[in-house]
Design goal:
76 residues, 2 domains, 3-stranded antiparallel beta sheet, 2 helices, 3 strands, flat
Length: 76
């Protein structure tokens, strides 16, 4: 039996609004901080797959706050 929300487009609108709110909040936070840290690392797994790992932090009040965490497979 398929789930009802898979065919309902209202959840998509809710996700779009949540994304908009988060992006607006992040823009305000990033404009107010002095330092942004971005780190990138490439990982090779035992079966020769390549993955990249990106972390972005903002620094405020002598502590860093994670604002982005991305982990994706690299395709050649």
């Amino acid at each position: 039996m398929p789930h009802k929300h898979y065919n309902d487009s209202t959840y998509l609108e809710m996700v779009k609004m949540m994304h908009h709110i988060i992006m607006q909040s992040m823009k305000i936070v990033v404009q107010k901080v002095k330092y942004i840290i971005v780190s990138y690392d490439e990982v090779t797994t035992i079966d020769n797959q390549y993955w990249c790992n990106v972390h972005a932090y903002i620094v405020g009040g002598f502590r860093k706050v994670l604002v982005l965490l991305n982990f994706e497979k690299v395709f050649n």
